[in-house]
């Protein structure tokens, strides 16, 4: 499927790939379910320090449940070295977070930038009630026509593209039209496509599951890989000063180095927790599978997800660009 993507110079950046850890002495205290136990922490004390360094909210979010966090927000902050984004923004006045989910990005952005007014929008009203005074949420569908009474200085969307309609040119143009001159757009997406540094994922249940998942998402009129072309979409919408950074995230702690092991542990935890829900929904709806067959496949896929001899990774792509339009509304 990815081989059919339009080639474009704007999509050429590649993530730096992790290296295999050939050492047998670097065991981390990762438990069967992928969490890392604080009772086993001596071997991981440097890992703990690293996590603390790069994400001040790691222990605050889901406090006490796991030594390492297990959610996408934490993975994102880990990759971005504790930052919420990579666009070189300077005190943006009005900020919009599209598909805000729990609102955690919007809330943290508001806390870190008290001079900003942050609006988070989502289809679902799942955001908390107690908020920083400069943060609020609205129910909205990004696929609908936008009717904001003012433009924004920073529009951010994370893990959203696979959920919205396939007219991504329209999506990025709408973002452009809703920015003030000099305003920044930023998107961060996980491309749900497993690759490996050495072909070790080929022929696995994981690869079979992944191929089926991409087919199913396509049948639902969406795409889980289109985010690879974010830079092209930003350019075509008129954005300038384009920035793109891609990260290869190991699917478990197979890779060498404490940072790679930390991010791999979090990713494994995240995948193990999320895979039942997404697979059951998508495979039964779009592929017509019966739940028993989904469950059977998932037994093998979960084993693969924890198998350190499979050197697989997924790609996270972070893109930004500035609006160069000259007249404000
Ligand atoms: C994977 S979550 C990401 C949440 C958040 N952006 C984050 O990074 O924590 C995707 C979110 O997009 C929302 N969403 C999906 N389709 C949407 C749409 N058409 N308009 C607005 N929100 C949408 C979902 O409700 C969900 O909360």
From TrEMBL:
- Can the keyword Acetylation be found in this entry's annotation? no
Q: Which InterPro entries match?
A: SAM-dependent_MTases_sf
Q: Record's superkingdom?
A: Eukaryota
The entry lists its GO molecular-function terms as: methyltransferase activity
Q: Which UniProt keywords apply?
A: Methyltransferase, Transferase
Which GO biological-process labels does this protein carry? methylation
Chain intervals for the UniProt region annotation (Disordered): 1-39
Where is there biased composition of kind Polar residues? Answer: 1-15
Q: Which Pfam families match?
A: Methyltransf_23
SUPFAM superfamilies from the UniProt entry? S-adenosyl-L-methionine-dependent methyltransferases
Family label: Belongs to the methyltransferase superfamily. LaeA methyltransferase family.
What is the recorded name of this protein?
S-adenosyl-L-methionine-dependent methyltransferase
Q: Which organism is it from?
A: Parathielavia appendiculata
Its lineage opens with: Eukaryota, Fungi, Dikarya, Ascomycota, Pezizomycotina
